What we know:
There is one protein chain. The chain is mostly helical. The chain has one domain. It is 77% helix and 0% strand. The relative contact order is 0.16.
Amino acid sequence: xxxxxxxxxxxxxxxxxxxxxxxxxxxxxxxxxxxxxxxxxxxxxxxxxxxxxxxxxxxxxxxxxxxxxxxxxxxxxxxxxxxxxxxxxxxxxxxxxxxxxxxxxxxxxxxxxxxxxxxxxxxxxxxxxxxxxxxxxxxxxxxxxxxxxxxxxxxxxxxxxxxxxxxxxxxxxxxxxxxxxxxxxxxxxxxxxxxxxxxxxxxxxxxxxxxxxxxxxxxxxxxxxxxxxxxxxxxxxxxxxxxxxxxxxxxxxxxx
Length: 256
């Protein structure tokens, strides 16, 4: 594979995993599972669940780690969420919800078990080989036990790898000086920016579009380095293909 091929594979893997895990995180069925677990506000269940691997931290600390959310609202949702099951309990509950979602919409959709096994196998090699410095959510989720069955395990591995890429991206974004609102606006626009709790008016960051594109390239280059430390080029291409196929399966199987 050429350098460009490796960059494209890293970008494709990252995009597929980000979208697949987002389908789980934002789906009404997952929100309903959080409500059933005792979270009156499913977004509080999300914040406590995703951030629970950080332990009994303050809302201020968690908002700093989440990086791109409006911090006051994020801290409030953390406090509300950890009041239900604590931080560790929230993470365990969310991890189980991810496993069940994978079982229902990967295995349940007739996806090839061999492909799911391979996503987990290759992804776990990357996870094990990657240093955790500066990547607190990745470090926390890496320590969580994975499910035994292929569908649940594959989605959980994708979840951990999503936190890995997000952590790398947040580090690059923070160093750049581009504000979270500007990054959201440059990425997906005002509706997406509002979803993260930011109030209008939104700074559009239009004069920083080239700089933001550079951050994406920096993120992908670092992910190439991470993949190269764990996988050979053929395995990197395979992980990109299988991740893209898993996303397509998810989109076809999960009700809108």
